[in-house]
Amino acid sequence: MELLSEWKKKKCPKSTKYRFSHQKYCLIVVEAHHSSVLVFALALLCLTILLVLSLLTLPTPEQDRPTLGSETRSVTLLIWWLPFGNGRSLPDCKVSYGVPGCNVTTDRRVYAHADAVIIHHRDFLMHWEELLEKPRPPLQKWIWMNFESPSHSGSLHQIDGIFNLTMSYHAGSDIFLPYGYLEPHHSYGNRQIRMKRKRRLVAWVISNWREEQERVQFYYRFRRYLHVDIYGRGFLPLVNNSVVKTVSGYKFYLAFENSCHTDYITEKLWCNALVSGAVPVVLGPSRENYERFLPADAFIHVEDFKNPRSLASYLKRLDRNPALYRHYHAWRRNYNVHVTSFWAEHFCAACQVVQDNLLVHKTARDLASWFLS
């Protein structure tokens, strides 16, 4: 009642006015002779209007929008050609690699609705007209897939601007998948290394023999100083048709690439040598390039020696010194070797990258210059 008494004492005009500023306040002017009930009602009405206006002027909350990182998007990945006509079954990416939402198919009837199409370079060169004549959905991504070296990848300059994403062993690829890599062991640093006794010294498995190859020319010089057992087409037969079983009886393996290019480090190192338990003697890209993927003391590079004779002498020295030889296996305390599974792992890796980049549009330009670098 004290509040009502104060209102009655005010000098106000005979009309009642309501004013609402940007700061949301209300000024009430009432006639001094109104009853206390009317004043209370007007005050209540003012507060109600103030509350309503406050709610109306609040910013409208944004609707929830799915983000690429917060949920899994279902993706249809069309394999236009199975690489080299490979007839293996397509993978269940969730079961095999923990990548949900991937529909991997070779059914070309889904082309118009596919989120991405994987196009294998070698097959594309032979059958390009099958694809380029088809109208292309505007949001669909074409993925250029190639795991051959630049020396064996023709017509690169003719396909600039066709593809959206690249997938290869090259570290700069949109979908980077090397032939193999090292994974930290669960008992990192505490693993015991058990060395199998090996009686043989140097092995080499080769099926693509060409006289002009650098690796063949190096072998001709190297064999003058150290014997090498050669397996493969036209040479010794593999034990139980298995490279790993064959090489596991040797201390060293010649992991010689068919051509020397950046990041081109193939199964010759990962599977033939490391999985087999042999120390790889590598010929390929530079030592610095190998050290991006391996500890420096996990391999022997031919460029570390001034000539094949020096290399042969060093291998003989390691053969006579078990402690020095075991040094090249010290990395096994900390790591396991993962050999990439062709082609299931590639398809699932591509599917995951497409999921993360559904709304991103880009074009792979200067593909030849990039891949040849």
UniProtKB/TrEMBL annotation:
GO cellular component: Golgi cisterna membrane; Golgi membrane
Entry EC number(s): 2.4.1.-
Localization annotation: Golgi apparatus membrane; Golgi apparatus, Golgi stack membrane
One family name in Pfam for this protein: Glyco_tran_10_N
This protein's record includes keyword Nucleus: no
Keywords: Glycoprotein, Glycosyltransferase, Golgi apparatus, Inflammatory response, Membrane, Signal-anchor, Transferase, Transmembrane, Transmembrane helix
Ranges where the Fucosyltransferase C-terminal domain occurs: 196-370
Fucosyltransferase N-terminal domain residues: 74-180
UniProt KW Acetylation keyword: no
TM stretches of this protein: 37-58
Membrane topology: Single-pass type II membrane protein
Entry's family note: Belongs to the glycosyltransferase 10 family.
The name this protein goes by in its record: Fucosyltransferase
